[in-house]
Amino acid sequence: MKKMTKKKKLFRKVTALAAVIALGASLAGCGSSDGETTQRYSWPLATASPEDTVTQIFAEKFAEEISELSDGRMKIQVYANSTLGGDRDLLETCADGDIPFVVQNTAPQVSFMGDLAVFDLPCVFDSLDECREKIDNPDVTDAISHATCMTAIDINAAAIVTVTKSGKTARMISRYRPKCAIIGCTPSEKSYYQMNLSWGVTPLMIQEETDTEALFNNAMESAEQHGYVQHGDLAVITAGIPLGISGTTNLIRVVVTGHLKK
What we know:
The chain is of the alpha/beta class and 262 residues long. It has 8 helices and 8 strands; from the N terminus they run αβαβαβααβαβαβαββ. β1, α2 and β2 form a beta-alpha-beta unit. α5 crosses α6. It starts with a helix and ends in a 6-residue tail after the last strand.
């Protein structure tokens, strides 16, 4: 079984490498009309979808936009129909750095990033506008904040860790006066100083991340390094998805300090 897995991974790498080499060969010797060499770049983009799907149409449009915005100096070659592998194969190959671009829906990505499952909830909203309205509703943030505090009480958490850009989530949680520590993690210096004014909130500067797991790891590791939580402590994390947008608090997670996924 292990031998088959190794062979499969090797096949993926060889296939991806062949695609990159082919692209490099197709652009070799490119130059301008006056004889000066023009630096050009090329990358493969893979999908497991047929040509007539939304996923494939998006991939083709992305390739067109890259070519247009770079005046033809950058080329994206789209490989459809699982040419370079199925959905899981493509994700693993992308994670290994062999393919830089993969376009697919969220379903196959959930096994790698569990929080993405929220986007696969069926028919929760009738339109994107309704979805945005509900997520941005202050009542939602208030409900999440209250649920966070109740969860912390139920599991006797050592701390509530909020990952917030504006500081609003930490302030909302502060209103409920939880007995455990409130750690407000933020990449914003302005929010860092503002959170000092909220009851029971200990502000903590962290690096901004675009990946949920990396963000949570960063927040918990920083809190542990500063002595706000100890290795093995239970903590409740609350944040918003998508990341980097103020006022979208919609996620609660219970974690064990020092045992988050890398």
